[in-house]
Amino acid sequence: MPLEVPESVLSAPILSQFSLEDKLCFVTGGAQGFGLEIVRAFAEAGADVCFTYLTTADDKATKTAQAIEQQTGRRILPICADVRKRADIAAAIEQAVQAFKHNGTTRHLDVVVANAGVCRQISSLDYDEETFDKDYAVNVYGVMWTAQAAGRIFQKQGHGNLIITVSVSSVLVNTPQPQTSYNSSKAAAAHMGKNLAVEWVDFARVNCVSPGYVATNMTMSQPEEIRSQWTAQVPARRMADPRELKGLYVFLASDASSYMTGANVIIDGAFSVP
């Protein structure tokens, strides 16, 4: 039965349904930005977490993992992996599953977050094959290869939960910056999530998260003039703190959202509403 939920889950007190106790989670792009907050949130909710990184230095990723372990008492494993390479991300997920064995028994992989993403601001008249492909390589192919590797495990074990970080750019056109490849790649990833939700309904849930402007290195590195235009367009008149996304990801990863699949949840301070 698609999306069948055990009675023990349905009858559990509501707060316990949000727990990720003893779950194994895997997050791509988890060394910085709100990817790091997703890792921290999952660990705070009781999960062991593996995260991938690529541009972060090895020692920094290791120290980040150790700090979260000390804060939460959960196991955190950083793995350097390139989501653009199908074999690379598949090997990273398998490495995580093997690393978290318990008494020789392989753990189930409960939650995978395809979070790694990139953004470039280029005029649509100036793209060439290489520059246009760069966003798609991470934002579309990277999501697909992460999903495929996770999906094969989910299908084999009979359950799983995939969360895809897209963007409010999946449903609107940001201004004033030109970013056609980013916006269209995020729209593709969001629609990919809907397709996977239907295709995998017998063994996994698939949902997307579409943040608006979040105060990360990516956004805060932009000129003040641009940032002020962005916040002026947001009814909340500010960007989100990355920590404000933690609750949504924990909800989607938990049993509290057991009937939720195929959704693209927008969290943007009403930016997309007017």
UniProtKB/TrEMBL annotation:
Molecular functions per Gene Ontology: oxidoreductase activity, acting on NAD(P)H, oxygen as acceptor; oxidoreductase activity, acting on the CH-OH group of donors, NAD or NADP as acceptor
UniProt-listed InterPro entries: NAD(P)-bd_dom_sf (IPR036291), Sc_DH/Rdtase_CS (IPR020904), SDR_fam (IPR002347)
Keyword annotations from UniProtKB, A to Z: NADP, Oxidoreductase
Pfam families: adh_short_C2
Source superkingdom: Eukaryota
Family as reported in the entry's similarity comment: Belongs to the short-chain dehydrogenases/reductases (SDR) family.
Protein name per its UniProtKB record: Putative oxido
